[in-house]
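Convert to structure. Protein one:
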Amino acid sequence: MDPSEIVALPQRRRRKEAETQQGDGIDGNKKQGGPAAAVSPLRGGGSDSLDPNQNTETIDVPAYEGERAERRAGNASEQRKYEYLDHTADVQFHSWGDNMEEAFEQAVVCMFSYITEIDTVDTTSTNSVEVSGHDLDSLLYAFMDEFLFQFCVDGFVARRVTITEFDKEAFTIKAQGFGEKFQPRTKHPQGTEIKAITYSAMQIIQHSQGTAELFVIVDI
């Protein structure tokens, strides 16, 4: 691909902006990512620890280094519940939801939003996904990895993901992705290539109120 055709999206510049802002009073530890560095809406602010008894019914829109990925797209039903956290040479995805299913769905949308500008993707086709694991960590890995595999093989980009079956005892998921084929030269801005999903520092947090949040580091 001609490098001149690659369009850097705002969220891809986060690492550079963080470095320049560090001298303006931003804590350098935030660049390392992880739950302690993130300002989670499920934690209600800047707490460094997760409090399962904390009220999580209202999900606010906190700021992270002056920029957040959460926003409402053109379709009012599409709420973005994720952010990107810097993590040395890689990037950490942080997603959350009213339940575990939504947090898993948002993690996949977060991944595709890092690959391209998600609002340029139309939901003209669907792809089915069925994965299994031996625990929640391996299930989350398989879920994201299958969507990444479909992107690498078929070029399918999911703007929206719906889990139709989630068995937390057998650790299986059936889901559908709604999107279209990636068209980098004519329609979709080229973001950052994701080489692989990793288990590094993976966290799956289920809060007592039913809300959930995930932390996943990907190799870029």
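Protein two, convert as well:
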Amino acid sequence: MEDRQGGDGHGGAGMVIPSKLRGDDPSRKSSLIWLHGLGDTAQGWASAMPMFQVPYMRFVLPTASSRHVRVAGPFPVPAWSDILDLDENAPEDREGFLGSVQRIQSIIDGEIASGVLPSRIAVGGFSQGGAVALSVMMRSRVTLGAFIGASTWLPLRDSYPAELSEANQKTPLLVLHGDRDGVVSPRWGQMSADFVKSSCGVSDVTVKIYRGMDHSACPEEFVDIGNFLRKAIPE
């Protein structure tokens, strides 16, 4: 596989997979910031990045800090926030989610400082990582190129539209879910997609449901992500 660089490229844990882009034209640089799920690390998604078939993109894969998560047992695990319960009405770890949003925003700012145009940066993630990605979409003051939420939900919905930034209302969003997901209900994913359209003014939302897929990923999903990225941020 491609050369991998340790760290998220901006002072945090994770991994960076450089792009295969040829030439020095800064306007062609692009980045995908991809966030893993609860208990995983950047390494867990590194092998999936080439399957998106966007070799011109730089992949930035941060690893979340380890913390105690109430639903995950007594030992610390990599997590973007605490999860108090898997019930849709359970209280949420606002401080944890917003801290992770701030970290991803700092990575976005670092990518822009390195010469990547904001319109050529995508942010996506799986499960809890996707929840952070959707939160970045709602809160970032920077208009980015694309967002992806896989097997996920939008947390802290009660804080919108009061805390909504309008910067990404026209940015395309791809929401993906398996119809047999027993961890994050596909209903949560659909409700989140409907909510960002109806209550947050996001106008370009695509929802894909995969028959027979549980809380995981599949080749068809990777193809759809690649097609979405190539359309939103062409080479």
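Residues 82 and 93 are 6 Å apart (CA to CA). DSSP finds five helices and ten strands in the chain.
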